[in-house]
Every structure is written in structure tokens, then in C-alpha cells.
Please model this.
Amino acid sequence: MLRVVRTPEGSVRLDLSGKAPGRGAYVCVSEECLAAARKRDALAKALKTKVEDAVYEEILAVLREKMKERAETP
Model:
């Protein structure tokens, strides 16, 4: 699971540490899960703020990297 956080200042960003302060929402590590969350606007609803396309693109890049790492691990 990857954590996305709305910081106390109101910005939305990916929280790779899982410990950043603010309201958090989680998305599973799959492109299908992210696509479904984006279609339903689930992150915006959970974080109670608008989630910009750039945030989704950042999450997608990290998801792809994590999936690549998993595939390379024996």
C-alpha cells in the first residue's frame, strides 16, 4: 500500500515514509487499483480536497517502479 497525504498546509503528496503528518489515504500497489481510485475520485473524497493530475502521475511512476522491483526480486 502507498500512502497519499494532505499535509496540514493543504498540499497533497505521496508519503513514502508512511509517517508524514496530515490526513492520509492508501492505494494498493497496482495500476488497476490506482485507475479505479482515480475514476471514482476516491483519493479526493478520502482526503477531502482536490487531487491534481500531477499527484496521480507521481503515484503511477512510483507504482511502476515498485512493481518492477517486485518482478526483479527472486
